[in-house]
């Protein structure tokens, strides 16, 4: 994980032997699985430990093979950050959706090429609400 600015960071998945398939490209499972990790880290940075975060839905679109380190960037990170702050100020449950672009750097040309796009939805619940529900269930079960 690399922080670019206060509201923006980049996650990099190294191109190692364990991430490759038999075409010598990055394995699709590695690209897909680390999308949730990168998006979750972006969300945890904003939510902190006050919220329980669960991935509800994730759609990954493979655009081309990845032959180098994969770089995960949240599209419109500033907009997502302000929307997230607005939702957190209500102290209620909410869903947050955002889009990530997955790119690789072409060393010969020195530019980034998009290899995938991930649309992801997380459900965030304040931990105090979880504790209240557990207390109500316990009280109901003791009756």
Overview of the structural elements:
By secondary structure, the protein is α+β, with helices and mostly antiparallel strands. A 6-stranded antiparallel beta sheet has the order 1-2-4-5-6-3. 34% of the residues lie in helices and 37% in strands. The chain has one domain: Roll (Thiol Ester Dehydrase, Chain A). The model has no long low-confidence stretch (mean pLDDT 85). β5 (94-106) and β6 (111-126) form a beta hairpin.
Task: Provide a brief overview of the structure.
This protein is of the alpha+beta class and 143 residues long. The chain contains three helices and six strands, in the order ββαββαββα.
List descriptors:
single chain, 143 residues, alpha+beta, 6-stranded antiparallel sheet, 3 helices
User: How many helices in DSSP terms?
Assistant: 3
Q: Would you give the CATH topology? A: Thiol Ester Dehydrase, Chain A
Distance between the termini: 49 Å
Q: Which range does the strand content fall in? A: 35-45%
The helix fraction, in percent, is 25-40%
Mean pLDDT: 85
Query: Class, according to the CATH hierarchy?
Result: Alpha Beta
Largest sheet, in brief, is: 6 strands, antiparallel
Please tally the β strands and state the result.
Answer: 6
What order do the SSEs take from the amino end to the carboxyl end, as H and E? EEHEEHEEH
Could you name the ranges where pLDDT drops below 50 across 5 or more consecutive residues? none
């Amino acid at each position: 994980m690399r922080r670019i600015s206060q509201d923006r960071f980049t996650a990099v998945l190294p191109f190692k032997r364990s991430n490759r398939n038999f075409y010598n490209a990055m394995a699709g499972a590695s690209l897909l699985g680390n999308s949730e990790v990168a998006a979750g880290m972006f969300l945890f940075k904003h939510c902190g430990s006050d919220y329980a975060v669960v991935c509800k839905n994730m759609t990954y679109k493979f655009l081309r093979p990845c032959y180098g380190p994969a770089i995960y960037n949240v599209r419109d990170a500033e907009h997502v950050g302000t929307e997230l702050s607005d939702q957190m100020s209500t102290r209620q449950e909410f869903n947050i959706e955002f889009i990530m672009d997955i790119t690789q750097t072409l060393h010969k040309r020195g530019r980034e090429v998009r290899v995938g796009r991930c649309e992801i939805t997380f459900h965030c619940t304040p931990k105090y609400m979880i504790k209240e529900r557990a207390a109500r269930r316990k009280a109901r079960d003791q009756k």
